[in-house]
């Protein structure tokens, strides 16, 4: 299912469940926060839209250890060349598009 189809399906579900929002039926999401079913669908729509945004991960070269430190908290060392020469376009840990940071 494509992201846009998912968003449309969730919007459809949200409208069907707006009446149920008055009922005390709750579902637990987000590590402890409680939402009505309609609020849960709104939250799911928000998360689906965030999937559409290209995520970035800043890589900063550290000369002392001859490696790249990433914004997501990992260090990558290349045997030869830099990440561009090794055809790294996305961070292996977080999946974000690699953005070169200041050294």
The string of secondary-structure elements, in order, is HEEHEEEE
Number of domains: 2
Major β-sheet annotation:
4 strands, mixed
| Apparent shape | elongated
SS-based class: alpha+beta
Q: Radius of gyration from the CA trace?
A: 20 Å
Mean pLDDT: 77
Strand order within the widest beta sheet = 5-4-3-6
| Helix run count | 2
Strand content: 15-25%
Helix content: 25-40%
Unreliable spans are 21-29
Beta strand count: 6
**Amino-to-carboxy terminus distance:** 41 Å
Describe this structure in words.
- This protein is of the alpha+beta class and 103 residues long.
- Helices cover 29% and strands 24% of the residues.
- Helix 1 packs antiparallel against helix 2.
Quick summary:
The protein is of the alpha+beta class and 103 residues long. It has helices at residues 3-16, 37-52; strands at 26-29, 33-36, 56-62, 67-70, 75-76, 97-100. The chain has 2 domains: 3-52, no CATH class; 56-100, no CATH class.
Layout of SSEs?
Elements: H1 3-16, E1 26-29, E2 33-36, H2 37-52, E3 56-62, E4 67-70, E5 75-76, E6 97-100
Parallel strand pairs: 3-6
Antiparallel strand pairs: 1-2, 3-4, 4-5
């Amino acid at each position: 299912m494509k992201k846009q189809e998912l968003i449309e399906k969730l919007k459809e579900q949200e409208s069907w469940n707006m009446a149920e929002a008055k009922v005390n039926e709750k579902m637990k999401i987000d590590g402890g926060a409680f939402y009505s079913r309609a609020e849960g669908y709104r939250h799911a729509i928000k998360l689906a839209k965030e999937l559409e945004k290209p995520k970035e991960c800043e890589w900063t070269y550290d000369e002392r250890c001859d490696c790249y430190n990433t914004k997501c908290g990992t260090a990558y060392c290349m045997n030869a060349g830099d990440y561009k020469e090794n055809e790294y376009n996305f961070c292996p840990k977080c999946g974000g598009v690699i953005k070169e940071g200041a050294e």
